[in-house]
From TrEMBL:
Region described as Disordered: 94-118
Location (main, coarse): membrane
Residues in ATP synthase epsilon subunit C-terminal domain copies: 92-139
ATP synthase F1 complex delta/epsilon subunit N-terminal domain ranges (all copies): 7-87
Record note on quaternary structure: F-type ATPases have 2 components, CF(1) - the catalytic core - and CF(0) - the membrane proton channel. CF(1) has five subunits: alpha(3), beta(3), gamma(1), delta(1), epsilon(1). CF(0) has three main subunits: a, b and c.
Descriptive protein name: ATP synthase epsilon chain
One cellular component (GO) term of this entry: proton-transporting ATP synthase complex
Organism: Holzapfeliella floricola DSM 23037 = JCM 16512
Keyword Nuclease: no
Keyword terms of this UniProt record: ATP synthesis, Cell membrane, CF(1), Hydrogen ion transport, Ion transport, Membrane, Transport
């Protein structure tokens, strides 16, 4: 049984945000979706602003959802290390705050578009993606 177990760790500049043993981790890389299980060949891949799903070993029906703000995943020797600027488990997301951030990002985006300010538009688009990701992940409790 131990042969099909991996360790999944999510690290941000604030330290380890998540660490568990798992049967599988699913991520969205910039090149497509990845499902990584034990004995997968080593890989390093950049990640999108997206949800990570971890199928834990302690309960076969339990899957943790984690919102990440991009980053990358490295998998080697049955250890998946995800490094991201920010990461939050679904249970830790403040939904009302995420919805407020979404509203603010939408307002900034409309303003930047009307002023043809490409730099501000890109920043607002990223902020909107982060807020929408947090909202979507928070619903996976």
């Amino acid at each position: 049984m131990a042969d099909n177990i991996i360790t999944v760790t999510v690290v941000t500049p604030y330290g380890i945000q998540y660490s568990h043993r798992a049967h599988m981790v699913s991520v969205k890389s910039i090149d497509g979706d990845l499902g990584i299980m034990a004995n997968h060949e080593p890989i390093v891949a950049p990640l999108k602003i997206s949800e990570i799903r971890v199928k834990r070993t302690d309960n076969t029906t339990h899957v943790d959802a984690i919102a990440v703000n991009g980053g990358f995943i490295e998998f080697q020797d049955n250890v998946a290390t995800i490094v991201a600027d920010g990461a939050e488990r679904a249970r830790d997301i403040d939904l009302s705050k995420a919805e407020q951030e979404k509203s603010e990002a939408e307002q900034k985006l409309h303003k930047a578009e009307s002023q043809h300010n490409i730099d501000e538009q890109r920043r607002a688009e990223v902020a909107l993606k982060k807020a929408m990701n947090r909202i979507n992940v928070s619903k996976h409790l």
